[in-house]
Amino acid sequence: MTTWSKTDWKRFYEAARRPWRHRRPPRPVYPTGINRVLPAQGFSLSELDDAGVNLELAERLGLPVDAGRIGTYGPNVTVLRDFVRSSRRPL
Question: Given a cut of 80, is residue 44 above it in pLDDT?
């Protein structure tokens, strides 16, 4: 592994500043109480499975995955399905 040069950092920040082509990937949440949710590290494997998304597709779409999370939260599955449908449509 080599250290990044100044041009490497410049290219990285230029790419990071560019807007997303379609839509930003959704951020997962998990319920913590009545009418309260907090952001999660990533989608659980069961949420991906329920939405019909495999790990390869999730990586290609830039979706965060947390293999340690257990369980399924319905709104996350719905958001995933909508995101995958919209990403397959050509603009």
Answer: yes
Which pLDDT score is estimated for 23?
Answer: 67
Q: Has residue 91 got a pLDDT over 60?
A: no
> How much is the pTM?
0.70
Distance from the Cα of residue 85 to its chain's centroid: 14
Q: Per-domain residue ranges for the chain?
A: 26-88
Q: Which residues contact 13 (CB under 8 A, 6 or more apart)?
A: none
6 φ, ψ (degrees, to nearest 5):
-65, -40
- CA distances for 55 relative to 30, 44, 64, 79, 85, angstroms: 20, 11, 10, 17, 16
Please, are residues 80 and 26 in contact by the beta-carbon 8 Å criterion? yes
Span 44-52, mean pLDDT?
Answer: 94
DSSP SS3 for 19: coil
